[in-house]
Design goal:
Largest sheet: 6 strands, mixed
Order of helices and strands: EEHEEEE
Radius of gyration: 13 Å
């Protein structure tokens, strides 16, 4: 399932918060929150928007996500394509 996560930590460009688009094998938002609550780190696959189309996404690989810095999680329902680079 794909999620948009707002992190309460500075971004690369020095914004106070930043957002990540990630995928996790959770079947629902509740399942994802349970996985986060049960583990200090959860491995997710991170995706970036393709700057050429601004609609497609491409994988940036897997990252370990620490639940302590998450401010908000939203299920992404739009149909942007996920591409491998």
């Amino acid at each position: 399932m794909r999620f948009l996560i707002t992190m309460n930590m500075p971004s690369y460009s020095n914004n106070l918060v930043h957002q990540m688009t990630v995928e996790h094998d959770s079947k629902s938002l509740d399942d994802f929150v349970e996985a986060l609550s049960s583990n200090e780190f959860v491995i997710v696959e991170e995706f970036y928007k393709d700057p050429r189309t601004d609609a497609d996404y491409y994988s940036r690989g897997h990252v370990a996500l620490n639940y302590r810095y998450i401010g908000k999680i939203k299920v992404l329902t739009h149909r942007g394509a996920l591409n491998e680079r």
